[in-house]
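Write out this protein's structure.
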Amino acid sequence: MNVGASSVDDAGRAVPSSWTTRRRMMAAGFAFVAPCGATAATAGRIATIGYLAPGSADSPLVQASLSTFRAALGELGWREGVNLVIERRWGEFDALRLAGAAQELVDRRVDVIVAGGGGGTVDAARRATSRIPIVVVIGLGLVESGLVHSLPRPGTNVTGMVWEQGVDIMGKYPELLREVMPGLKRLGGLYDATAPSLRPYREELVRIAGSLGITIIHADVQGPDQVEAGVQSLAAWHAQAMLVYGSTTTITLASRIAALAAKHRIADMHVVLDAVRAGGLMSYGKSVAEFYRLAASYVDRILRGKDPADLPIEQPSKYELGLNLRTARALGLSIPVSLRVRADEVVE
């Protein structure tokens, strides 16, 4: 990562010193000016974060994640308008637009890029720069794709978190649904066909459903414009319940999917808690909020001089169960008390 005095940055401009040297100088400056406390340590300098996301800015779930991230930064002493600027860029579910957004952040010379929401953001950011630190919020296959050398020691400008879990998680979904719908026989899957990493999970769910005497079909969608047709196809098949596989498209459009499920009277199960807040019936999966809180911690350490190549990549392990009693009543379902007491969040 060290670059000589005559080097150029990612936009082809001459730079006077290496990124690492600049970081060390800034870190030393912080310690000299105000060595006590997070707020004091960040005084006198405005840092710029590039926030890159693959979806749309108008998604409530996207805004909730960004709000969590900003709040966590605030707790660490970084506040917008005081010592922090966040440059937001959105891919709008378009790979070319996402690539252009990543390049805009590089041209803006941000201090760090936060690749939020999966969906190829880290790939777009890494293609745009090999020097500016990149914090991945929800990463998949970082080692396999060559983005990092290893999880304990990334060795590149990429660090952050990975969303790793075994396929055995798929057994939880029919199990939970049957607690609410003991007679469940017809299960639909809303599946993002553009996410190859989901295939092993799909295969495992088919296997498990078969062993439980549940018939399952999948509606394969390849973008936001196919979501409504996908839900309609499951409704036409008379699916009693629907598992919404986690992907950038389905998580970003969770409120829309929940509304479609309610319209067709399908009990919807999601993988993120925010979907239940948006009207979905149930959710079970890793805590997205935890990923964004940890992302703020990575950004804080990098802005204080840490090299991303040396920051181990974490694998958050907190799972959350969410229930929406209002949606259950609308569907004529009764959620047992035994399930309610296990829930991390219940929407009344």
